[in-house]
Specification:
There is one protein chain. This protein is of the alpha/beta class. The chain folds into two domains: 201 residues, Rossmann fold (3-Layer(aba) Sandwich), CATH 3.40.50; 85 residues, UDP-galactose 4-epimerase, domain 1, CATH 3.90.25. Helix 2 packs parallel to helix 4, helix 4 packs parallel to helix 6 and helix 7 packs across helix 11.
Length: 324
């Protein structure tokens, strides 16, 4: 049987990494589709474009009817916490409402298709403050910001829709980074500033927010490897939840120190109050034994390589005049 895999957010940071991970696994008769809000040519070559907006339930249903996917990987979302704070209505409409519309379209048009839903570790929120150890999938959901709340609602909604017959797998990945990520996230924000300083485009001072928070970081290439494994599996229990985590909490200040050690010139550090996020969680890390057991997954890319690759990526982008 041929596979018809539809990826929402295929033109984003994680989506592009997933496409690269999936392509070597596809047979000649398989098809890979990328959903995007508008057909602007930004999809990777060879990906069949599907146009719909996650706030347009009618168009979503029409697209599912036309494509008839065997598997949908739902990555598209308002992913930046600061964006969700600025426009809470949009965050809820896209993250929760869009997920509902997609699930209902699948139930109505392709009831045998599988949904790989990508949630986030942010849904655990305040529970991180109550547990001295890392969290597993049984931890209480206690979202602490609008982004996390909208994703937690979508996560629970998918679980409820499983009871209606939706075939779904849920992932709760912890922080992930890698080449191609935007400056809206902490590791590339540091790397981009270092690259600009090295190129003489910025004074030799990095502006930072909270350096004391500890986070569980993964390489995006490891994360999409877990998604790839789920896409290729047809026997996973419907509704199952997988944390994706390294189990290692890394202090943000130490991440910066490691990046500065790779810099080609001395750089000072200056705290910027505008970069401090409200409701910050001091320590957040997780356990991923279930993914290890059922998906044979564990992080494979060394953290040092991730930092090297992110910094080198920004050096290339700055040298090429991108976002200089």
């Amino acid at each position: 049987m041929s596979e018809r895999i539809l990826i929402t957010g295929a033109d984003g940071f994680v989506g592009r990494a997933l496409v690269r991970a999936l392509r070597p696994c596809l047979r000649d008769q398989d098809r890979l589709f990328g959903a995007q809000r508008r057909a602007d040519g930004s999809l990777d070559e060879g990906l069949q474009a599907v146009e719909f907006d996650l706030v347009d339930a009618g168009r979503i249903r029409q697209a599912i009817r036309e494509v008839r996917p065997t598997c949908v990987v739902h990555l598209a979302a308002i992913t930046a916490v600061q964006d969700a704070f600025l426009d809470r209505d949009q965050a809820w409409a896209v993250n929760c409402g869009g997920t509902r519309a997609l699930g209902e379209a699948m139930l109505g048009e392709v009831p045998d298709a599988r949904l790989v839903f990508v949630s986030t570790s942010e849904v655990y929120g305040g529970t991180f403050k109550l547990r001295a150890s890392g969290l597993d999938e049984a931890a209480l959901l206690d979202p602490a910001n609008p982004y996390a709340a909208s994703k937690a609602a979508a996560d629970l909604l998918v679980g409820q829709m499983v009871r209606d017959g939706l075939r779904a797998v849920r992932f709760r990945p912890f922080n992930h980074t890698g080449p191609g990520q935007t400056e809206r996230f902490v590791v590339p924000a540091f790397a981009a500033q270092i690259a600009r300083i090295e190129a003489g485009l910025q004074p030799p001072t990095i502006r930072v927010g909270n350096l004391d928070a500890c986070r569980d970081f993964l390489d995006v290439r490891d994360v999409v490897d877990a998604y790839r494994r789920a896409v290729l599996r047809h026997d996973l229990p419907s509704g199952i939840i997988f944390n994706l985590a390294s189990g290692v909490p890394r202090r943000i200040g130490d991440v910066l120190t490691d990046l500065l050690a790779r810099a080609q010139r001395p750089i000072a550090v200056e705290r910027d109050p505008q970069r401090l996020r409200p409701s910050d969680t001091p320590v957040a890390y997780g356990h991923a034994e279930r993914a290890a057991e059922l998906l044979a997954w564990s992080p494979a890319i060394p953290w040092s390589q991730t930092l090297d690759d992110v910094l080198d990526d920004w050096r290339r982008r700055i040298a090429g005049g991108e976002l200089a």
